[in-house]
Amino acid sequence: MTCVDLHCHSTASDGTVPPEDLPALAAKIGLSALALTDHDSTNGLQACETACKGVGIDFVPGIEISADPGPRIDTDGVERRRGTLHILGLFVRHDDSELGKISDRMREARNSRNPAMVEKLQELGVRISYDEVEELANRQGTLIIGRPHIAQVLVAKSYAKSVSDAFTKYLKFGAPAFIRRDYLQPQEAIDAIHHAGGLAIVAHPVQLVMPDPEELEHAIKRLTDMGLDGIETRHSDHTPALVAQYEKLAKQFKLLTSGGSDFHGDRKPVQLGSQQVPREVYERLRDARKS
Ligand SMILES: [Zn+2]
Ligand SMILES: [Zn+2]
């Protein structure tokens, strides 16, 4: 039984490996199927599919959509940090109109938010420009600019000791230069994935930051009621105990399971194929996909 990787990123979003080069990497380590799941973008799918055919591995066209995780209100009534809600679409049609609309909307939201955060920084007396952020992102060969790029400029210009220090001081939720982004509602993300003939899978549930199992169960139920098809149980951020917890949840709600590394190239210390997801996980998803 071979292994597969159903979650990875290319330079079409914030990865460092071009989509046409990923299949050769996957084949080299013996994977038999690969999903490309760039953030809010299907731009790399065509190139990756062609290259998968070239090396003889199965390709799963995918996308990873960021959605609104909802407010997190603490017992004192104050809204504090939120977790991250990412929804993977697997087996999506590359050229679906609804997915295209979502990509455009998310790109616009990001394009207006990042310059606005840099403006806020400037108001706080931080001397960086948006050009510097764009230059850095271009140098790294990524198409999607985000807070990590702003953070790296802050570090380079000695306004922060590290990327995480830059987030704490300026960029994280509630920090002085933070600006809330325009989020898609989870229902919109799930509907768009279904419109494109794909399966909607909640990515890395650990990042929802719901240590209370009841709260997590409630969140999964809510998503299931919206049409969620599966849970990403294996992921580089999941301990074996979490994998077991998520597999139990999948059973409870009759959901499919998926798994992947969330490979980003050399941006993160995560290796392609490192989750050793058995091929049968891929086959179950393939057989369940919407036509
Ligand atoms: Zn994610
Ligand atoms: Zn991802």
Judged by helices, strands and strand pairing, the structural class is: alpha/beta
Strand content: 5-15%
Shape: globular
Report the total helices. Answer: 10
Overall number of domains = 2
* Rg result: 19 Å
**Which sheet architecture does the biggest sheet show?**
8 strands, mixed
Poorly predicted parts: none
Roughly what percent helix? 40-55%
Mean pLDDT: 92
Strand order of the largest sheet: 7-6-5-4-3-2-1-8
CATH hierarchy: architecture of the largest domain: Alpha-Beta Barrel
Ions and ligands: zinc ion
For the record, give the distance between the C-alpha atoms at the N and C termini, rounded to a whole number: 27 Å
Total number of β-strand segments? 8
Q: What is the CATH C-level name of the largest domain?
A: Alpha Beta
CATH homology group of the largest domain = Metal-dependent hydrolases
CATH topology of the largest domain: TIM Barrel
Order of helices and strands: EHEHEEHHHHHEHEHEEH
Secondary-structure map with pairings?
Elements: E1 3-5, H1 22-28, E2 31-36, H2 45-55, E3 58-67, E4 85-90, H3 97-123, H4 130-139, H5 147-156, H6 163-171, H7 186-195, E5 199-202, H8 213-225, E6 230-234, H9 240-252, E7 256-259, E8 277-278, H10 279-288
Parallel strand pairs: 1-2, 2-3, 5-6, 6-7
Antiparallel strand pairs: 1-8, 3-4, 4-5
Describe this structure in words.
This protein is α/β, with parallel strands linked by helices and 291 residues long. It has two domains: 3-94 and 185-288, Metal-dependent hydrolases (TIM Barrel), CATH 3.20.20; 105-171, Orthogonal Bundle (DNA polymerase, domain 1). 41% of the residues lie in helices and 14% in strands. The protein is built from ten helices and eight strands. It has helices at 22-28, 45-55, 97-123, 130-139, 147-156, 163-171, 186-195, 213-225, 240-252, 279-288, and strands at 3-5, 31-36, 58-67, 85-90, 199-202, 230-234, 256-259, 277-278. Strands 7-6-5-4-3-2-1-8 form an eight-stranded mixed β-sheet. α1 (22-28) links the parallel β1 and β2. α1 (22-28) runs parallel beside α2, α4 (130-139) crosses α5 (147-156) and α5 (147-156) packs across α6 (163-171). The relative contact order is 0.17. The mean pLDDT is 92. Residues 7, 9, 37, 64, 262 line the site of one zinc ion (ZN).
